[in-house]
Write a structure and sequence with these properties.
With 524 residues, this protein is α+β, with helices and mostly antiparallel strands. Helices cover 26% and strands 26% of the residues. The protein is built from eleven helices and 22 strands.
Length: 524
């Protein structure tokens, strides 16, 4: 097979026919010489608004491959995934705390290897969890154990199911394939920026859980990890609460996949002597524009083309005083949501369904912060997050509505008064307010300086009627739990994995971390 890279392919017409035509032009081969083509990767090139097109990497089956080698064309050698030999000696079942991406793929790996993991998930199965989130959105009654952050699928289940990642691990392709095998859209295997959509993630997660259970894995929902039993710096067991009852489990391997919002669990682990360190993170607000504005700014006259879908963006700038400001977790055709998990605090996130057809598009507008601004304690970042979230809760009326203001009001340093042509989409409600009363001054100053700079990259970005809804505080964990080459913490038998432990950032990277953590357990 020949690998052809960065082939320009038009939007119109059949994809397979266009790929064959592009391959023939690249190889300068006779008609009929190409036996087959296979799409490996497809991205959108919108740098020239007069010529928006796809850029594709493809595999071509053709006779006399060596004859066609040239720049941009090479013989493709597929590297098989190497799975280490499993030789776990302990007879105790491994335990996993948390059933988000890291926990799901750790459990799947252990179950397929013949070990029957016990999974403790403090939240509820995805079906009940979806009902709890819907109830919160309409009645503003928060269930601290079943919400946007906690429950089967983790926080990513109520985002957009974005699967793009910056890591280069070969397991990334394996994760995408497994998701597709369990019902995710098959095109996630080839898109440069794949996504599933919140509306389709539930069935994928359920399918993964059913395979784990069919192999002997056991899911215990509503089960919150409460205590570790440690002897001579080695894990010997743990305790958890389920349905108001306390249970103890003998264990010598605990895969910690708790996500970035299980603050009470992190506090318990810290009290038990698990080593932790502060980690820089970011805070800010969600910025929201009409979807058509973003489509037009990105695609010009090609906006609305059925082959393109809703446009996304990724922006970054550095202010004159050197502070970095950037967009994160962009949700085309989506909505802002309230992602609170603690009573008395408001935090926002973004969500899109698979079709990405909602009226607005939104993204986090973030500024990096150092948790040491709250003091030297390892968990100082949690104190900063809580302070921001509780301020937002109070400012917006104390019922999980979020404070918001137009970009025009924000840049003029005046409190929000009303909303114009852009209507906030957050289902718990947006109350005009002043984000400077919620976020640290260093953050709001950096945002104000960066907005005009970012508008040079995306023309409508600083439009005065665009809406800022805040706060966004949980883009990543403010804590890292160190681990050694065996993937264990200073407490032997404890494997800190995924976003909550500060070792991943997104669905795919957390899933990969879960797989490699499970391999470490099996080899221990």
């Amino acid at each position: 097979m020949l690998l052809l890279q960065a082939l320009p392919v038009p939007l119109d017409g059949g994809l397979t026919e266009n790929l064959i035509r592009a391959a023939r032009e690249k190889l300068r081969c006779p008609s009929g010489a190409i036996r087959s083509v296979r799409l490996l990767r497809q991205a959108i090139d919108s740098r020239k608004k007069s010529n928006v097109h796809f850029v594709c990497h493809i595999l071509v089956e053709i006779e006399n491959e060596e004859k066609y080698l040239r720049p941009g064309v090479e013989i493709y050698h597929e590297t098989p995934l190497e799975i280490p030999a499993f030789r776990r000696k302990s007879a105790l079942r491994p335990v996993i705390a948390g059933f988000g991406p890291a926990g799901i793929f750790a459990a799947l790996t252990l179950a397929r290897a013949g070990y029957k993991p016990i999974v403790l998930e403090r939240g509820q199965p995805i079906g009940q969890r979806s009902k709890d989130v819907a109830q919160f959105n309409t009645a503003q009654r928060l269930d601290p154990e079943s919400n946007v952050q906690f429950g089967e699928g983790g926080a990513g289940a109520f985002s957009d199911g974005k699967l793009n990642t910056g890591i280069k691990d070969p397991l990334c392709r394996f994760v995408l394939q497994e998701l597709a095998n369990h019902g995710a859209p098959p095109e996630i295997r080839t898109q440069a920026k794949p996504h599933v959509g919140t509306d389709r993630l539930g069935s994928v997660i359920t399918s993964l859980r059913k395979e784990i259970e069919s192999l002997g894995g056991e899911l215990r929902f509503g089960a919150r990890l409460d205590k570790l039993f440690i002897e001579q710096s080695r894990l010997t067991g743990l305790a958890y609460t389920q349905n108001a009852k306390r249970f103890a489990v003998e264990a010598d391997a605990l895969l910690l996949c708790i996500g970035h919002s299980a603050r009470d669990t992190i506090e318990m682990l810290h009290s038990a002597g698990v080593e932790m360190r502060q980690k820089p993170f970011a805070v800010g607000a969600r910025i929201e524009h009409p979807r058509e504005w973003i489509d037009r700014a990105q695609y010009g006259n090609f906006a609305g083309h059925p082959a393109l879908g809703s446009a996304d963006y990724k922006l970054a700038s550095r202010t004159q005083n050197g502070i970095g400001v950037y967009t994160f977790c962009m949700c085309p055709g989506g909505s802002v949501i309230c992602a609170s998990s603690e009573e008395g605090g408001v935090v926002t996130n973004g969500m899109s369904e698979h079709a990405r057809g909602a009226q607005n598009s939104n993204a986090a507008l973030l500024v990096g912060v150092d948790p040491s601004m709250e003091g030297p304690h390892a968990l100082a970042g949690f104190a900063l997050q809580r302070k921001i979230e509780q301020s937002a809760f109070s400012l917006a009326g104390g019922n999980y509505a979020a404070p918001a203001q137009t970009v025009g009001d924000f840049l003029a340093a005046r409190p929000g008064r009303r909303f114009g042509g852009v209507k906030p989409s957050i289902p718990t409600g947006a109350v005009p307010g002043d984000l400077r009363r919620v976020l640290p001054e260093a953050v709001t100053s950096a945002m104000a300086r960066a907005l005009p700079l970012l508008a040079r990259q995306l023309s409508c970005f600083a439009h005065p009627e665009a809406v800022l809804t805040g706060p966004e505080t949980r883009s990543s964990s403010p804590v890292r739990i160190p681990r050694d080459d065996s993937w264990q913490a200073n407490v032997r038998g404890l494997y800190p994995l995924g976003e909550g432990a500060g070792h991943a950032g997104g669905i795919v990277s957390a899933a990969v971390d879960g797989i490699r953590g499970a391999w470490a357990v099996l080899e221990g």
